[in-house]
Amino acid sequence: MRLLLLILLLLSGYAEAGRVIDPTEVMPGGESNVAFSEFTLYFELRTGVSVSNVPIQFANLKPGMSGMCISWGSGERKIMVDRFVWTKLFNYEQKMQLIWHELGHCRLGIEHSDKVGADGCPTSLMHSLAISRKCTEKWNKKYYSRFLTGEGE
Fold first, then answer.
1. Sequence-separated (6 or more) residues with CB below 8 Å from residue 98
2. Terminal C-alpha separation, the chain
3. Nearest to 95 by CA among 116, 123, 125
4. For residue 55, what is the DSSP state?
5. Residue 33: which region, alpha, beta or left (left: phi > 0; alpha: psi -120 to 50)?
6. Cα 138 to Cα 88: distance, rounded to the nearest angstrom
7. Which residues pair with 122 in a beta bridge?
């Protein structure tokens, strides 16, 4: 019985995931999913940078990936967000961090910064790994002020 429950649990997560996308197969253009509107609006208001030319869409990404910025030689860019991570794992604050992180890459050209503080928490929204709920609760406001000023990048 335990084995059957474990198998059903695993299948429920993976069946929803579907085929993992190959970034080389993604085409430029398209419309942003409305699920991201609130997050992009807040980014535009705080940074003064328009993101209307960077569509954000759901995809099934490789395990361990929350989102990715894809760019083409033409200068076009697109953000892909893992549907399972977005709907099942991330809370509101982590969703905001993910969108800002990917827009930091796609719209502002910011690279990863993997610095961590004495408490083990990342010092920047641009850390290459998702920020834990514990660190988010402790540092969330500081992450945005650092993002906007370049401090900690």
1. 66, 67, 81, 86, 90, 130
2. 50
3. 125
4. -
5. beta
6. 22
7. 116
Report the amino acid identity of residue 110: I
Residue 64 identity: G
**Beta-ladder partners of 70:** 78
Give dist(CA 56, CA 152) in Å, integer.
26
Taken in order of first residue, the domains within the chain and their CATH numbers are: 20-149 (3.30.2010)
* Phi–psi pair at 77, nearest 5 degrees: -140, 155
Tell me, rounded to whole angstroms, the distance of Cα 126 from its chain centroid. 10
pLDDT computed for residue 26 by the predictor: 78
Residue written as tokens 């695993």? Answer: 10
CA pair distance 113, 123, nearest whole angstrom? 8
Question: Could you read off the pLDDT of 81-109 as tens digits, one per residue?
Answer: 999 999 988 899 999 999 999 999 999 99
Residue at token pair 């954000």? 56
How far is it, in rounded angstroms, from Cα 59 to Cα 15?
14
